[in-house]
Amino acid sequence: MRNFHQNIFNTEAIVVRINNFGESDRLINIITPKNGLIRGIAKGAKKPKSRIGGHLDLLKFIKLSVKINKNLASFNQTETLNSFNGFRNNLSRMSRGIYMGEIAEKLSVEGAENIGLFNLLVKSLHFLEKTNHFELITRWYELNLLKVSGFSPELNMCVETGKEIQPGNHLFSSDKGGIVDINANPSDGTPLIPASMNTIKLLRHLNKFEWEDHYKVLVDNQTLYNSKRILREYIHFIIGNPIKSEYFMDEIFHKEKI
Amino acid sequence: MSDTNSSLPSIERLVEAFQRLPGIGPKSAQRLTYHLIRMKREESEELASAAIGIKDNLMTCKNCFNISEEKICGICRDENRDHTMICVVEEPLNVLAIERSRIYRGIFHVLYGVISPVHAIGPEDLKISELIERINHNDIKEIILATNPNLEGEATAAYIRDTVSETDKNIEISRLARGLPSGSDIEYVDDSTLVHALNSRSSIK
Ligand SMILES: [Zn+2]
Known about the structure:
The structure holds two protein chains of two kinds. Chain A is an alpha+beta fold.
């Protein structure tokens, strides 16, 4: 699994997980462009005078020096490139950002280059700082994360018959990774989720265009909910274990609606 | 230290017990155990009874949830303190740090953690509803949010700010952490920085 090219290197990174460790150290997971996920330790990071601690907060975009050891890497000489202060006071943004970080972590491999994934995460946190379309940006991010991880759902052809999907209401299969034509009738008992015509349109649109283009998209709540359900079930299927930050994100989402 | 010695059951048992403590690895656990072997019997007894004593005599204050030897802690019982001002902290150790600075004259509320979505710790796992309860039943004028200056501390502060704002009380809400070095832990912040952070707290309503 762990296949790092060098033992000591400098890299850009996003901090995705922090655990306190011992008296004053922190265990930290970062995502990097060329070395994927790295699990490491930052000695003395809890102390106010620490030169690295202040930079090692969740979702900070940092530059640091990494030393690969037998078990945990050690992190040194950190520098903050962007703290994304735009969402540090806003629960709607913070809860989505933390979720974005967690699913990126789950789809990252230790030591494996994934520049696309890294750039997507940095870019999405930038977008999240400014947008008020919290749900839409999250769907856009999920689709693009699936794309850069090689799990893009099939949205144009029926994954059962291979035929082109005609306009209308259809179904979605997480097992098979895409839209199932409503007339295809899969015989193997594959669990299917309804996918309305508007939902399929929305997913295709988000999958195809850069985020800037979406400010104009007006989406009704039913379509937003349907697309959320499809992507959530599909991501659960791919990742295989629960995504913990979903609960808090959902709680904040329900507060937003009131 | 030979392996033969450390595999004696009574030694093994203590080494393992030490290892469960925060900040103690296998080597420190072994060192402490061997130190205890050399200790006088009375010293060992004092250590053991002190360890049991904190279990028998300590409880959490019914009002603020700080560690206390009585149902209501000394801070909450102190009539000279300002009972309209609550400082909200993550852990009992943070109460200690703020008390050390000697500048704060209000009372406290201990949350026992922070909202940590990636660890599946949500608001319902903390003493937040108890805080709202206190606000609803007492004359509270100001809440100072002294959670740590990091993303999860900010999220917790923002959540409490929003929840307190939903009550119909007119309460000043301020944030302590602005002047503190980001990413640090209030437990380790020196007194003068804490005094400054308390004095320069800013409203976040
Ligand atoms: Zn008390």
